[in-house]
Amino acid sequence: MSDSPHQTVLLHEAVDALIQDVNGFYVDGTFGRGGHSAEILTRLGKSGRLLGIDKDLEAVKAAEARFAEDERFEMAQGSFAALESLVGGRGLTGKVSGLLLDLGVSSPQLDEAERGFSFLQDGPLDMRMDRTRGEGAAEWLARAPESEIARVLKEYGEERFGKRMARALVNARQEKPITRTRELAEIVKAANPAWEKGKHPATRAFQGIRIHVNDELADLEAVLAQSLSVLAPGGRLVVISFHSLEDRLVKRFIRRQEKGQPLPAGLPVRDEQLDRTMRSVGKAVRASEREVGGNVRSRSAIMRVAEKL
């Protein structure tokens, strides 16, 4: 397990928004290294409960080491896309007081070269949150058609030179397999004709491949939809996103729940017939200048909060 420090983003803002009942049941769907969970537990009463969820086995080990003595806490290894099952199996469907999702990659994952997330360190090209399941980045790059690689880089990495990079990757793998993060970064860098100021030329490509390998956007859509059934009336959904694809999904989901069922214009209906399920709480929140100064990874964070009606 890495000793890399993880600086929790929007710590107090997220927990302040999340907790409305100190004796409620809460879910930290992205435990990471337990920063938010630790703060939640300091706010909960003796009857409060917290369920942590994470795909990463290292996160599970961290939870066991940190909170083993706290009877209010329980850890589950898996994807937050299984939220309904995890909550329902505990007989708590419709009774969750708050669900927190801190999306993205934790500092230890980025800083451990062997995880294969970072273009700044050389390591095996993996990128899986859960290394016991699925296909790693190297395996996917070895078999994916050029068109699929280009689509992933463009859609998930928002990389405008995705086609050029995909062609370069396919040409490179014909010479030898791409198995290291530094190899991938160098190939992508050479295929990038216009770098963004202050951003490594491989940033977007690594983001796109990571999102694809971990099925991150599909999992996010799934957990947002499931939040409606697990949350109690008045329960809060708090989501911290780190790039526009995630934030767009969250923003659209909350807006859709606020508006209710789409109906033809001019149809005479009462407000209660619209079947609104959530209301937005406050405006989107970003990290303060002080937080960004101490943790550059917080600069892209954006938090949105909604409450179940």
Describe this structure as you would to a colleague.
The mean pLDDT is 93. Helix 7 packs across helix 8, helix 7 (146-155) packs across helix 10 (203-214) and helix 11 (216-230) packs parallel to helix 12 (244-259). The chain folds into 2 domains: 11-107 and 216-308, Vaccinia Virus protein VP39 (Rossmann fold, 3-Layer(aba) Sandwich); 113-214, Putative methyltransferase TM0872, insert domain (DNA polymerase, domain 1, Orthogonal Bundle), CATH 1.10.150. Strands 1, 2, 3, 4, 5, 6, 7 and 8 form an 8-stranded mixed beta sheet that branches. It is α/β, with parallel strands linked by helices and 309 residues long. Helices cover 42% and strands 15% of the residues. The protein has 13 helices and 8 strands.
